[in-house]
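Sanity check

After download, print the first record. It should look like this:
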Amino acid sequence: MLGMLRLQEAQTMSRNLSGFCFLTLCLDQICFHISEKIGNIKKSLSLRNCGQEPNSKTILNKIGDEILVINELLNKLELEIQFQEQTTDSLKELCASLEEDYKDVEHLKENIPPHLPQVTVTQNSVNVSDLDSEEPVKVEEPGVTKKPSKEQRNIKEMPFITSEEFNGIPAYMKSRLTYCQINDVIKEINKAVVSKYKILHQPKKSMSSVARNLYHRFIDEETKDTKGHYFVVEADIKEFTALKVDKRFHVILNILRHCRRLSEVRGGGLTRYVIT
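Expected structure tokens:
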């Protein structure tokens, strides 16, 4: 019984001691906080007093001016950073656009239509090392230009269809035909036109019997509506090309009329396809 009473008294004293320690800790914190505030007030008062002194006031004014200058520099720096960020974004967009253009160029390079003419580069320059320095270079005087012969006359050919024109052709008209298929037919028609008019421009004395017969047929097929124009008929297509004059061929001719590459002149049981 006596032991239990002593235990309770000890527990009570322990709780009182813990409360006292906690109270002491709180008082220490409050004292520290109050002391800190008092110290800040003393510093403010001392700075205020310093500002009243002439020497200190001059220094403080200089410091204030320097702060304003620094503030302006910071504002300029912020604007420059914003400009650089915008420039970076623009460069990223430009880089992405260039990458897309590069992919398009690579695709075009790998998918060049076979009907396009091949570009040949002729080398007109002469290396200096190939010339003999001891021999003077002869300069030819321009002579009288000769008139082009009949064989050298320019024969009008049909321009190829562009991708923009192909996209503008109605779907019902072009059906399943591709861009290359249409231009392949144009290439063959041009072949027939060139072959026909080479014979027409050829001197009669140098013609073979086959060429002479074709020449007379070409003359008979001309009308007043085709005078001065280049045209072919189905017989020319069969004569000079490997094209089949079938339903598909006439569908492509309809497309070429739509794209204003040729027109038709009928008469005498013939349809003449005039290059426009």
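If your output differs, re-run the checksum step. Summary of this record's structure: The longest helix spans residues 54-110.
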